[in-house]
Write the structure tokens for this entry.
Amino acid sequence: ITSGSIADVMSYASDTAVDTMEGRDLLLYIDVTGAGADQSLALADGKVDGPGMQDALSRFYADVQAIDGATPNGYMTSYVADALIPAGMLNDGIMGLDGSAPLLANDSWYGSVYVNFVDGATWEAYVDSLGLDRATFCDPARPLAIAVNSYDVNNGETYGNYQPFKSTGTIECLEFADLNGHFVSSIEDDPAGGLRALYFDNDGDPAYLPYDEAVASTQNIEVGALADTRPACVDSSGTLQLILPASAIDLSANTGYLRASMSIDAGGDASAATQAQEAIESIAEDYPELDIAYTNVAQGNLQARLMATTVNTFIYCFAVITGLIAVANVFNTLANALILRQREFAMLKSVGMGNHAFRRMIAYECASYALRGFAIGLALAALASYGLYLSMSLSYSTYEFSLPWMQVGISAVVVLIVILASVIYAMRRTRSSSVVEALREDAI
């Protein structure tokens, strides 16, 4: 049972915090504003030509798909929005997290939201995987976003995963007015009523503007569904995320461009990932508007998988070995105890105890041994599991305590089998001798 708890702990850590990036052996980070790009897609104030960039990415991705031995996982273009989320869309628990802004007086919430645009094939596959209607979510005339209902929190000491959304709705993306070089820090409640924007003046002192004066324009993004999973090309994040198709790139007008990215599946082969990188670098020469950085993570992924497999194998081998030792000890102790009580059994039979009553007595005794042993073992295992839970909760704030019920069931079955086997063996040993022989051997 304790081994099962350890395995559960490791599985939780590897599944929720240790991102081994399965199927993502080569990462491409693509920029159009970097020094390596020809700046033809870069606009003023850090913005980019969204449609033009999507056209370049689409052509580049089509060329990459032709590489042998490498499977692209799709691509995304990531933007960040200053968003105003209406009342009722977010779970109350998300407001208590470190660094999370509180609700405003009207129960709306202001903060940053990542808006990720993925290629058309990835979007369609994502919609299908969620069981959503293609006609509704693939309509370019009325684009609907899918909100990723998974929010990772890591403050350097503890890790947690939360579900921030509780319903769909319409999110406002804000574009702030020019404040003579100053930037809006946050939106907060105005003591006079309504909302106001906070910024800092040249002296670093807080200054305020009414909301209507600070916000130059708004753009609505309608969220049509919530999803616990992300497309393969979208990274996990500690920020709220919206997923949209690349065809809806016009919805990025009020957002700030971050970067584009792409990942390649090379079957976990580091050398194949290197060869794919060389081929992609050759293709990228025909795309001067794209500045591409590469990260080969195949070898690290392999080492992480091997480490997890090795530790799990060791844990279960240790559990099997210790279990076999315990089984042998129980079998030997119980069988010998019954064999050494031959005189007692002979005396009971001599005063009239029949075979049926005798077997029932032995069955009750063995059941008592089994229940007491299993109860004590379960209690000790529960304490050990709770200790593991306390240790895990120091680093994983959303880890919940639970017993490994499959291992508990296996333990109960093993206890029953061992008790039955030892009793059957001892009964056969004692059955061969008569009452007179048993009393005579004991007297001698």
The chain has a mean pLDDT of 83. Residues 23-296 form one domain. The longest helix spans residues 298-339. DSSP finds eleven helices and 14 strands in the chain.
